[in-house]
Amino acid sequence: MTAVETKLAAATPAMEEHGVERRVLAIRLVTILFLVVAWEALSHSGLFYEGVLPSIVLIASALIDLLTDPVFYRHLAVSGTEILAGLAIGAALGVPLGILFGSRRFLGRVVAPYVTALATTPKIVFLPIVMLAVGIGSESKIALGALSAFFPIILSTAAGVVHVRPVHLNVGRSFNLTGWQMVRKIYLPSLVQPILTGLRLGLGVAIIGVLLGEIKLSSAGLGFLAGDFYSQYRIPYLYAVLILIFALAVAANTLMGLIARRVGSQAPDALR
Amino acid sequence: MRATRSPALVGLAALAVLCLIAEALVAGGMVSPLVLARPSDVGPAIVKLIREEGLIRAFFATFAVTLAAGLTATAIGIPAGFLLYRFESFGRAYESWFAALFAAPLVLLYPLFLVIIGRNFMTIFVMGTITGTIPIILNTRVGLSSVPRPLINVGVSFNCSGIQQFFKVLFPAAVPDIFTGIRLGLIYALVNIIGIEFLINFGGLGRVVSDLYDRFEIPGMYAAIGFIILVSASVFAVLARIEKRIRPV
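^ Those are the sequences you sent over. The predicted structure of the assembly is below.
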């Protein structure tokens, strides 16, 4: 094979891949265009009650209004604080308990059915208990966020503990490490990936828990804002705030995914 | 001696101890009965819920909507997943969008559907269907894409038509992954349906909890929440058991 033929052979798959990427991009653009046209057609069709499907222009205008209004950022700050506080509390409880239940096999088997049962239950139904216990203010949303985040974190951490390499545990024991030293020197470094996965999943459900709690009963936050627009029938604003909530949730999830990948790629091979 | 202890029995014993502690805390006046229901009041409250609040009817209402949403999600999700597998460029174009939707808080869309459809079972059904469909689409595509090449080649060597190839080779090989999607879809649908029932105070089990909280019937509310936990856990356990049978080791 000549040098030219070799180069051509190497270039062909790359060219094919480039062609596929262009096709994928074209499909995405055509899909977006189709959705926009279909939306506008439906919004002007008279098939729905007036204002239920507002024109994209109205939604875009509401979006700009929201983004340039300081009130929106105050609500964003409230929700952000509640979500992060909920996630922090969920992690502060979920990680140590996950290590405990994962490392103590019998204890893990005792609590597993209860943790699984509670993990699969819609957390929003606990809102009444939470409100009775801590009040109807921000605390109840933080508590609901913490309750939501707790389960994916504890489950992911406990599952990770099972996969900690026995050789690492034996090294720790041979050095006569105390319980706390075992956690700090052996478990936590080995559990970076499962904990980050738990945090990513926990963040997603904490966002849902907090915002649903705000929609149900609150006086601030993005969930409250959505509920307020709904009750005032300001539909373009309702769409706008939901678009922003979705964008923020997807961005937060992507960011956590990137952090997990970056930290994972930096972990020593032995710990992966 | 240690090995003979059953985790289930120890778990039940621990639960009984927790109930006794809760009973003592409320009886001793350390926790208000308006915050924590006495476990001894929760048991009789379940009977009252069944007799007077229509708990069983509410259960069947939630169950029926979940089943309808799950079946619809399956009917949409499997063909959609197949199309994304069959037309590779479309699969690559849409997969990340569906993955983003999977991570997005779709349940928060419910006020929009209240506006578009109204406060009725259709809104609950649509929300359940939307949340249930995404994992089925994603898992169907993953399942079909993971079918080993030799299996596909066997189908080709037997001159199978497109439909035969799908029903005799692709689908059976992808069933475990597809069922994982259906399991996730059903659980997501159930969780979201109960959540929306609670939020809009309409429908089955979620509505019962909301009603009882509004009337401040605390033992009944605890009993209803306990019942929801039991239902969710049972659905999860049954689906997990079926999946274990389907999925090869």
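The mean pLDDT of chain A is 88. Chain A touches chain B through 52 residues (CB under 8 Å).

Shout if you want it in another format.
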